[in-house]
Amino acid sequence: MNLEVLYRQVIMDHYKNPRHKGLKGYPNVHLRNPSCGDDVTVEAKIENEVLKDVNHEGSGCSICCSSASVLCELMTGKTITEAQEIINNYYRMIKGEEIDNEECLEEALVYQGVSKFPARIKCATISWKALEDLIGEAKSEGK
Ligand code: ZN
Q1: In this structure, what CATH number is given to the domain that contains residue 123?
Q2: Does the predicted model carry a pTM greater than 0.90?
Q3: Which of 30, 34, 124, 140 could connect to 114 by a Cys-Cys bridge, CB 3.0–4.6 Å?
């Protein structure tokens, strides 16, 4: 099995069986990508600079919905410093740039092919941008 087939299977699995789907009422950020119809809300329970629980809700294309599922699973339990580093590496990977810490991306590595499809970059990063906003809010509030 080649890597691209494996990556597609991981993406379709998260799309069909999303993890951490459904909001529990924590602070959230809602973002939309009108060009594709993606509509995503990401929420995070942040305590002592740790992402205790990260969930998502919304609808959209397979790239958008699956990447939200991968994001929430990957980020739950991370500190906000770790989360920001992972987000930065993810953005670099999506843009096709060199990344210095590939291991930290874990399952999110399946989106590296997106760099070849600029129109899908927004789909793959929208939920990540929402979490980044939440981390920024938590930092400014000193949580
Ligand atoms: Zn999309």
Answers
A1: 3.90.1010.10
A2: yes
A3: 124
